[in-house]
Automatic annotation (TrEMBL):
Protein's organism: Rhodanobacter geophilus
Protein name: 3-phosphoshikimate 1-carboxyvinyltransferase
SUPFAM superfamilies: EPT/RTPC-like (SSF55205)
Localization, UniProt: Cytoplasm
Domain Enolpyruvate transferase: 13-423
Length: 436
């Protein structure tokens, strides 16, 4: 990714109309990987055309998987079977994607050949021991640079199943171990301190792999096969989140977001916003491919601060930047605790949001695992995205209700998860433009 892109988001609204947000990032990554390891062709509809998921597709192609793009948002993955991947002579570039790198580490640990996983500057600073340590306990050999990427994954290791209690709730780590477990002798069991998104478990079952799982626990054994399966990807709740907050805080707004994934391990923000007084309804609740979906209707409502229940944290782990903006304009203070994981995302999100909101005139008391945000009035100013897509989009939302425009530096990474954000945002009433 090259070139720099700054944004200016001005006061605007009301926001009106329908917003079709792109496909779910977590589901798109997994559909590619399971499609690649299955026998036969799997069609993915609603695929996220983001840089993160395209990087995963490119890695799988380097490993010998044929992936066609019949139309934008669609992929046809010609699976090579569990043992059909080939070595790539080149490093495998995961770009900005922690999900891509961590899940691929598990998948590659069981191959007969060596691989090297690399990432961009942000990914190169993210902790990898959380996956390499338990994978090593399964017999994998992965070298890191003091716990950071690149990851050199040695092939030809005999993996064996383990029972592993995750020290932190992480769907990425859980999924890496389950992927390695496909290649391991015996049973792999993962226990979580708090349940996290279960797309890997659901998708493995859909692809015909015997797996037992319940919230907080998953167990499978090696030695089976994956059967090609078509996947319909729901709209990404994490992308919808920016519009849920935007419509909630801009007077006179009403937005409808169709066919958004509502997996309960993803919708903590819905509950948090409702606790703050938001007016959000789900219409036409339904299921597709075993995943709950619904159309979300959100109207403006005055928000008030809350003490966020800690139990909600894992279910809204990617939505905190957006929540910070809601809290900044809510009446009273919002207290966040138990969210230290935010410090090791695409940026240190607690520090990034606290710094940006302070520039805009909001008092934020940062703690090691959270923050207290004192609601107030947003002034304009210049904030830093720290090359984090969700920080950039959150401050674009803040600009809507600021007294003068908010300039957001370095927004090019928005394309990792939400290509077309600016057009969709302006289509419903934002005043967002590239800044000179
Ligand atoms: C993801 C899991 C979460 C989340 C990330 C996507 C996944 O990360 O933040 O955006 O697809 O499994 P952690 O597992 O590190 O919490």
């Amino acid at each position: 990714m090259s070139g720099r892109l700054d944004w200016r988001s001005g006061p605007a609204g009301p926001l009106r109309g329908g917003v079709g947000v792109p496909g779910d990032k977590s589901v798109s990554h997994r559909a590619l990987m399971f499609g690649a390891l299955a026998e036969g062709g799997s069609r993915i509809r609603g695929f996220l055309e983001g840089e993160d998921t395209r990087a995963t597709a490119a890695v799988l192609q380097q490993l010998g998987v044929r992936i066609e793009t019949p139309a934008a948002g669609e992929r046809l993955v010609h699976g090579v079977g569990l043992h059909g991947l080939h070595a790539s002579g080149e490093p495998l570039d995961c770009g900005n994607a922690g999900t891509g790198m961590r899940l691929l580490a598990g998948l590659l640990a069981g191959q007969a050949f060596d691989s090297t996983l690399v990432g961009d500057a942000s990914l190169s600073k993210r902790p990898m021991r959380r996956v390499t340590d338990p994978l090593a306990a399964m017999g994998a050999r992965i070298d890191t640079q003091d716990g950071l990427p690149p990851l050199h994954v040695r092939g030809g290791q005999r993996l064996h199943g383990i029972r592993y209690e995750l020290p932190v709730a992480s769907a990425q780590v859980k999924s890496a171990l389950l992927l390695a477990g496909l290649y391991a002798e015996g049973e792999t069991e993962v226990i979580e301190p708090h349940p996290t998104r279960d797309y890997t478990e659901r998708m493995l079952a859909a692809f015909g792999w015997p797996i037992s799982f319940e919230p907080g626990r998953a167990q499978l054994s090696g030695g089976h096969a994956l059967r090609a399966t078509d996947v319909d990807v729901p709209a990404d709740f994490s992308s919808a989140a920016f519009f849920l907050v935007a419509a909630s805080i801009v007077p006179g707004s009403e937005l409808r977001l169709p066919a958004v994934g509502l997996n309960p391990r993803r919708t903590g923000l819905l509950q948090a916003l409702r606790l703050m007084g938001a007016d959000i309804r789900i219409e036409n609740p339904r299921e597709s491919g075993g995943e709950p979906l619904g159309d979300i209707v959100v109207r403006h409502a005055p928000l008030h601060g809350v003490e966020l229940p800690e139990a909600l944290v894992p279910d809204m782990i990617d939505e905190f930047p957006a929540l910070f903006v809601a809290a900044a304009v809510a009446e009273g203070r919002t207290v966040i605790r138990g969210a230290a994981e935010l410090r090791v995302k695409e940026s240190d999100r607690l520090a990034a949001m606290a710094a940006g909101l302070r520039v805009l005139g909001i008092t934020v008391d940062e703690t090691p695992d959270g923050a207290t945000i004192h609601g107030g009035t947003l002034a304009g100013g210049t904030v830093e995205s720290l090359t984090d897509h969700r920080i950039a989009m959150s401050f674009a939302v803040a600009g809507l209700v600021a007294q003068s425009p908010v300039r957001i530096n370095d927004c090019r990474h928005v394309a990792t998860s939400f290509p077309g954000f600016m057009e969709l945002a302006n289509g419903c009433g934002f005043a967002l433009e590239a800044a000179a």
